[in-house]
Write a structure and sequence with these properties.
four-stranded antiparallel β-sheet, Alpha-Beta Plaits, 4 strands, about 120 residues, flat, alpha+beta, about 20% strand
Length: about 120
């Protein structure tokens, strides 16, 4: 999975007034990611890369991203098992929605170099 992430300046917790004020980046990294990691712990997922976007070389005007994450899952079904769970919906998803102004999620499949 390739994740492109753009954070809100301030996390927007609609209906979750108990959450302390923080930036979108803080909500994602300190609230969402730890919960996601706990829920995904038995899936053998691997975080291959997580880093800040340094510059945009090509792409449409206005396409702006803060971070990129590349996560490997044993299968697409294992990913769906996490994000379709009741625990994810009740414990993690509100942090993700509060944190992100925009995002893209791409499912990628590993293929050998030069493969058709």
């Amino acid at each position: 999975m390739v994740n492109l992430l753009r954070y809100r300046d301030r996390a927007l917790y609609d209906g979750h007034s108990e959450e302390a004020v923080c930036s979108g980046r803080e909500a994602y990294r300190r609230r969402y990611l730890p919960v996601f990691q706990r829920l995904a712990a038995n899936t053998d997922y691997k975080l291959r890369f997580f880093g800040a976007v340094a510059a945009r070389l090509v792409g449409p005007e206005g396409a702006q991203w803060d971070d990129v994450a590349i996560v490997e899952y044993p299968s697409y079904a294992s990913f769906l098992g996490i994000v379709d769970s009741d625990a994810y919906r009740s414990e993690a998803n509100h942090h993700r929605l509060a944190a992100l102004e925009d995002f893209r999620l791409f499912v990628a499949e590993a293929r050998g170099v030069g493969a058709n």
